[in-house]
Amino acid sequence: MIFKHIQLNIDVKDSEFNSLYPPRIKELAERHWTPVAVAKMAAHYLAETSNSKVLDIGAGAGKFCLVGAASTSGRFCGVEQRQSLIKISKKIADKYNIDNVNFIHSNIKEISFSDYDAFYFFNSFYENIDHTCSIDDEVQKNRELYDEYSEYVRNQLDETPVGTRLVTYWSKWDEIPKSFDLENTAYDGLLNFWKKVI
Length: 198
Fold this sequence. Notes:
This protein has one domain (2-196): Rossmann fold (3-Layer(aba) Sandwich). It has eight helices and seven strands. The chain has helices at 2-7, 14-18, 23-27, 29-32, 36-46, 63-71, 83-95, 143-158, and strands at residues 53-57, 75-80, 101-105, 118-121, 165-169, 180-186, 191-196. The protein has a seven-stranded mixed beta sheet with strand order 3-2-1-4-5-7-6, with helices on one face. The protein is globular and about 40 Å long.
């Protein structure tokens, strides 16, 4: 019923969506997983056509991709370095027959952005420098890693074609190249819509 409501553009509360997750993952939702309303707004901007391939950079438990795939006809792919979260995401997608979504267990530095049309970024690397609410102990706290990942994403985005769309949520903007212009903002400036202009 949750995904049917999303497909029909009926509001779904985050508490309802997050009930799909195991208890520990559900506990992390408010801090780490994209709210349903934010995911829908971002997905509609990113998935311009039914052929649009959208990459979620650091997909976590897959919430953005699952909501995006259910609310648009775009194709969503989430890359995540934690195998346990990939398994949860795939299990939900399989259970609810969401077939325009995929999840990849990989480090972002192994992903070529040229395979995608649009990108979503919910401050995925902040956990490398934030000690206040870790998902688990798998990710190393290291400022150099934060800078390295941010630079990789910035360089990959800079090589995308003019017109490429990007949405950031709770971002410090360290990963955004100068070739992207800010088109719009929402949620008191936390959600930002970008387009490659040069």
